[in-house]
Amino acid sequence: MNIIIVGCGKLGSGLAGNLTHKGHRVTIIDTDPETFEMLGKDFTGDTVVGIGFDREILENARIQLADAIVACTKSDETNALIGRISKNIYKVPRVISRLYDPRKAEIYRTLGIQTICTTTWGIERVAQLLSYNQLDSILSIGDNNVLLVRIDTPVLLAGKTVNELTVSGEIHVVAISRNNKTFLPMAGTKLQNGDVIYIAVQTASVKRLESLIGLA
Asked: Of all helices (H) and strands (E), which one includes residue 3?
């Protein structure tokens, strides 16, 4: 993919390094050329100095060929403007803007601009860590309404089937690790001592899951 990142701070530089390592073509834009030092010597993408919402700068970064653009400067207004220009003028297929204010994030989602709100994510993540400390929450999906959790099979569940740990629309066992091998279980798969179970659960159903596995 051809990806443009606007803002070479901690998030932008880290994302640029991650994406180039995975084989994507990355161009990163920032007003301060010194920030490009954060990219490190291994960065193989392109750098452009300038204002990320300037059309000349965006076209120098080949926005016409971009598959995605990520706006992650320090300014909500700048990120939102870059998102709107990219989406409405250049028709970039994937547009992501980082916004600190969750109220603004919701507004721009309704306009078709995907947003990440570090404030909301941080609040939700801390709440999860405090509230679900008996479960190992390893991933929060989408709008934080679904969690992927990992647990060691409690004694209570040994010999039970996956179906007995399933609540339609609320709790689903998605994978089991057993003897250093991970597989997708069937409804009739029996749980064994030593299994590590990966479960997708609605956030609102965490208490119900804890009850099912004997943690409540």
From this structure: strand 2-6
